[in-house]
Design goal:
Ribosomal Protein L25, Chain P; seven-stranded mixed sheet; single chain; 14 helices; disordered C terminus; alpha/beta; Glutamyl-tRNA Synthetase, domain 3; Glutamyl-tRNA Synthetase, domain 2
Length: 559
């Protein structure tokens, strides 16, 4: 868990202004927030913004933040999702006010409040079908029509509602609706459904209930029961605030929380619709909810993102009421800054080309290992041993037979320094039957290991690994999962899935120190990018690395 003093306060925004004013004017003497996810999928980057805001406000104002699962639809909910949400919140560095809450904790009280509305003549059992309810509701240009069942007496509605609870209505044949105003300009106020029939096993309440409350009825009452002072949601619930207040105005509950809306987080090349994310998982387009190409929190964690980088990203984008789309480069910039400061260095050759140092072992070319720092600017991170032998691997892109003066890597007749080691000069190369270079012969400059030698001033430095003791491992390279920066707006988001979003390099060569890599541990593969050991592969006894982020933004690719 990250200590409060290690996290920067949330920047000033319209919500902190509201809280300051509420505390000053005595509307409340404390701050109580909540994070209320529905456990029907894994959390994504948009949820991270809400988590950082709600838990951050509680931290900054010395208040509390509840974790409450909105488990009112047992058809779509699963314990797997509940556990993943708890894990994601903790991983981001936050903890909740014990105990964990569930909307289902309040089912008895919610039922009682529904009966209260019925007795007041403010709710009725409707036997229109779901399609008929939609038809009667009207449109943005036309008012709705009253249901033929709207004027039943409170006593008859109570009897019918209790009949619903006993399971005597089939799904879709009866529901409980609030009696508000079918001519309201706000469609959410046109007698919204507040209870429906669902014959489904609930993860926590089992078969106790066959009727379940709707979100808009449940949410405001749950906030009031828990004493939430500032209920923060996204702008699509702005109209629903009228229903939030209406419910609390018409039931006998003392607490009066207030709802405030902010813009949701829209990130380039990503989806935040759980329905669409679930389709990607079900159709096998991605490797589960934690696929590193997804911007689910689990996917970001598996890819190598750090909690600090996500918190910093959420801090920088801020909290406003203006909808916008954030560039992926903004998130990656926060990640690079964190990894540059904290990720140990290592050498990995992703496209191995063998080089034979023909004079290795001769005078001045006898050193076989070097002690090198794990981080050039942080000696406290320690050091490691890098080895070398007669045969090494360099990246195929670091050799050309001929090249112009701007090319600063290895070419025939020219010298280059091996990172942390000797200066070498390429003298010849072997090719296969297709003319591809398969082997390079080189000579090392004597006594040049880690030192300058007179008349030998190579212009470039390349990385390498020892062919005799290196690790051979799979490395996964990633590109955006979608070809469209706004896949959610595409007519068919499946049509803009990038078929080249993942490239598997099955035989990369890595320095031997990486044998000790732990899952999720980030490394800077020098000159290549930031990578981390894949948690799923690690659990299966395999060593596999995922590209977390490139060393610098690719302006051309971004364009």
């Amino acid at each position: 868990m990250v200590a409060a003093e290690e996290q920067e306060r949330i920047p000033r925004n319209f919500i902190t202004d509201i809280i300051d004013n509420d505390l000053k004017n005595g509307r409340t003497d404390h701050v109580a927030t909540r994070f209320p996810p529905e456990p029907n999928g894994y959390l994504h980057i948009g949820h991270a913004k809400s988590i950082c805001l709600n838990f951050g406000l509680a931290r900054d104002y010395g208040g509390t933040c509840n974790l409450r699962f909105d488990d009112t639809n047992p058809v779509k909910e699963d314990m797997e999702y509940i556990k993943s949400i708890e894990r994601d919140v903790r991983w981001l560095g936050f903890n909740w006010q014990d105990p964990i809450r569930h909307s289902s904790d309040y089912f008895d009280r919610l039922y009682g409040y529904a009966l209260e509305l019925i007795d007041k003549g403010l709710a009725y059992v409707d036997e229109l079908s779901p399609d008929e309810i939609r038809e009667y509701r009207g449109t943005l240009k036309e008012p709705g029509r009253n249901s033929p069942y709207r004027d039943r007496s409170p006593q008859e509605n109570r009897e019918l509602f209790e009949k619903m609870r006993r399971g005597e209505f089939a799904e879709g044949t009866a529901c409980l609706r609030a009696k508000i105003d079918m001519a309201s300009p706000f469609i959410c106020m046109r007698d919204p459904v507040i209870y429906r029939v669902r014959f489904a096993q609930h993860a926590l309440t089992g078969d106790k209930w066959c009727i379940y409350p709707m979100y808009d009825f449940t949410h405001c009452i749950s906030d009031a029961i828990e004493g939430i002072t500032h209920s923060i949601c996204t702008l699509e619930f702005q109209d629903n605030r009228r229903l939030y207040d209406w419910v609390l105005d018409h039931i006998s509950i003392e607490a009066r929380p207030h709802q405030y809306e902010m813009s949701r987080l829209n990130l380039e090349y990503s989806l935040t619709s759980k329905r669409k994310l679930n389709l990607l998982v079900e159709k096998g387009i991605v490797d589960g909810w934690d696929d590193p190409r997804l911007t689910t929190i689990s996917g970001l964690r598996r890819r190598g993102y750090t909690p600090a980088s996500i918190r910093e990203f959420c801090r920088r984008i801020g909290v406003t009421k203006q909808e916008n789309t954030v560039e992926m480069s903004a998130l990656e910039s926060c990640l690079r800054e964190d990894l540059n400061a904290h990720a140990p260095r290592a050498m990995a050759v992703l496209h191995p080309l063998k080089v034979v140092i023909d004079n290795f072992g001769s005078e001045g070319v006898t050193a076989t290992e070097f002690t090198v720092p794990n981080h050039p600017e942080h000696p406290e991170m320690g050091s490691r041993i890098v080895t070398i032998s007669k045969e090494i691997y360099i990246d195929a892109a670091d050799f050309r037979e001929e090249a112009n003066k701007q090319y600063k890597r290895l070419k025939l007749g020219a010298e280059v320094r091996l990172r942390h080691s000797y200066i070498i000069k390429a003298v010849s190369c072997d090719k296969d039957e297709n003319g591809n270079v398969v082997l390079v012969h080189a000579e090392a400059v004597p006594n040049s290991a880690g030192a300058n030698v007179e008349n030998h001033k190579p212009k470039g430095v390349i990385h390498f690994v020892n062919a005799q003791d290196c690790l051979r491992a799979t490395v996964n390279l990633y590109a955006p999962l979608f070809t469209d920066p706004n896949p959610g707006a595409a007519e068919d988001f499946m049509a803009v899935v990038n078929p080249e979003s993942k490239t598997v390099l099955a035989d990369a060569a890595l320095e031997k120190s990486l044998a000790d890599a732990k899952p999720g541990q980030a490394y800077q593969f020098e000159r290549e990018g930031y990578f981390c050991a894949d948690s799923k592969a690690f659990a299966a006894g395999k060593l596999e690395f995922n590209l977390t982020v490139a060393l610098r933004e690719n302006k051309k690719a971004a364009a």
